[in-house]
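DATA SHEET
Item: assembly model
Revision: 1
Owner: S.N.
Input lines:
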Amino acid sequence: MMMNNSLKSLCKVAPGTVIKGKWHKYEYTVIKELGFGANGIVYLARNANQQVALKMSDNAMSVTSEVNVLKAFAKVQGSALGPSLLDVDDWERSGTKISFYVMEFIKGPDLLHFIHQKGSDWMGVLFLQLLADLADLHKNGWVFGDLKPENLIVSGPPARIRCIDVGGTTLKGRAIKEFTEFFDRGYWGLGSRKADERYDLFAVGMIMLNTAYPKRFTKTTGGINQLLPMIKQKPELRKFELVINKALSGQYQSAEQMRMELLHVLQPASPNGAPRVKQAPVKTQGSVGSRTKSRQSQVRQKKKSGLFETCLIISAITFIYFLYIYMQVL
Amino acid sequence: MRTGTLKQILLITDGCSNQGEDPIAMSALAKEQGVTVNVIGVMEQDVIDDQGLKEIEGIALAGGGVSQVVYSQQLSQTVQMVTRKAMTQTLQGVVNKELQQILGGAKTMEDLPPEKRGEIMEVVDELGEAVELEVLILVDTSASMKHKLPTVKEALLDLSLSLNARSGSNRFSVFVFPGKKTEVEKLLDWTPRLESLSSIFSKLTTGGITPTGPAIQEAISYFQKKRSLRSLLSRDDEQFFEESV
């Protein structure tokens, strides 16, 4: 419904069609359609016995824009959230030019199906993975934007959360490019559509809600007053209540902070683990690798804060000394 | 690169015009004067007939804009998407023109190899974030639109939320057709925020004819009127209400 009719017919390709790039001359044989979005159609295709995902659009702009984002993702070190980009090209088909790009084919069920199949034990783990990836992305100045379960695929084994549509990824501080109402804090009246960390964390909170409400629900009064009872109503969400609540009301400043608190919920028995780190200032956490909090990193943090203290004392004494000199001169 | 202010008309309707000038011709007239015309067709359970659909597509095509036909539940998403898409389209046109001057001949972005397009796209993205935008919203208030108006209101509030997240400034203005006494009636003068719509929209009466063509024509002239000194002075004022509402 949301698609232009012209786009649908232009990019409609029958299985078996060979797509040859104008610039790089690679050939791709279409196997089947994987799905379509507002900006184009994604096909499963084969190139030299390798299965790839090929996205086609009559709009070269949107293709270029998405390719830019995929390239930016590639620069985020260690992050495997988005698919890797393999090729960008144009295909000339009976006079018209169709832009396409080729990416890694990520296979697996989507997030909600996976949790439904394997049980809710997986929920925590997958959200920890997602938050770690988001933290990396945020550190590089990007905000994911259109975060939703349909775009989140669990590949594996070993189970690993991946994202298949990065079209909404926006530079921090700009207006969110693409969004889905249910996961958009603007729709619920809980904030602006300016891209910041908390925008993504709100969406993560809504995805957690979505796991308990597969059919979702519509806005009535909006605001946190509608959402809070929805969390409380579901027993399976009760243990995440605080985390979801803080994510929805924008109380987390970073994905790492949310990740730490989620970890604490999942692993409450460790007295000297997560909770203590939680009290450390957020900034120092940001400089340490996010995936595993080892003892070593805690020691390093302590050392850093020691250095900070020394500097503070020295500068305070210097300041008082100068004040003293100044008064003497007067 | 200076792009000036982007001017758009956003027409929200559910069918065919039945009075006055040809809306497609009026839309072409708007394009000639640098105003893009976008059209959103709103359906309920009913489907818009072929003639209506043709007109919707025709107006957008002639006006250099984007058209989309949707069910009213999807209106919010569509309104912001259409506006954004048209904005990018216009900016791309501007950038392409610059490119032609630099590269010579009929080269556009599409003629460049994909590797080079990325940087140009970044420029377009940046412009889209910072450019000044003026959107004149034309709402069809003929009888069949009556129960869709609350959704339209929500969609417009949502639009202002989306666009005001940009760093560039926005100005909106809302007209309805048919008006109480005239074919077109101004609801809201140029304002950066649409929140004040809430109170006005509930008092709207619907009914009568659908003079789409005259509405577009009136809208174009309103873009020009605004150039007067008075509106320059009141550039960053809050809003002006029409007392007739």
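QC remark: Confidence is low (pLDDT under 50) at residues 234-245 of chain B.
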